[in-house]
Amino acid sequence: MSKLILIRHGQSIWNAANKFTGWVDVPLSKLGRLEATKAAYKLRDYRVDICFTSLLIRAIETAIICLTEFEEICAGKNPVLKHEADDPYWHGWDKYQGDSSCELPIIPSMALDERFYGDLQGLNKAQTAEKYGADVVQAWRRSFSIRPPGGESLEDTMKRTLPFFHSRILTQLKQGDNVLVAAHGNSLRSIIMQLDRLSPEVIPNLELATGVPIIYDVDNTGQATNKIILI
Ligand SMILES: O=C(O)[C@@H](CO)OP(=O)(O)O
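Above: the input record for the complex with 2-phosphoglyceric acid. Below: its predicted structure, written as tokens.
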């Protein structure tokens, strides 16, 4: 049985400021780094073979903290970011083949990026609710198919997260690897919707706390058989 560890990044400086963030690439706050360190402590008895993150620094910082705070989680290996060679201007670090006997790959992908929040990015959430009405803004934030102005619905986000989840993440799990995924509230909600078989009517009630690991047991057919949340 493989372990799938999902973690929403620790608090970012824009979570702290109550701003819509989406694809804006803000770092963790001091509290966020502490949350990630606490998550690393909770994960100290787990072993990770491969890690996937979004391209956004708040998820990457969270992954790095989880993988470096206690050496045991990587079984003594060094985490190394492996960039995909799909950017023609990429400077070529990805050409390094690496050494799987002593390196733990961290694969960053835009498929795991936060939902694109369009025109709301950078706006204060409370002020936006006052301007447009709390119910309208709640539907933009939590419904399955309603898009925030100029942005992605959860359904849109799911169209990029799930193909990646199936082709890259589940493939590793089915072959027996333990996988850490450090991503975002909405990219993870779309994956959990699939794992927990949640309907579009139920998904608005799913909230993910920052920096809290969610662990699934996944069998070799790719089915999730158990779930625990390390609060
Ligand atoms: O601003 C964002 O990018 C997200 C996560 O912080 O917000 P929401 O809670 O509305 O999904």
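Notes for the reader.
The CA atoms of residues 22 and 221 lie 33 Å apart.
The chain has a mean pLDDT of 95.
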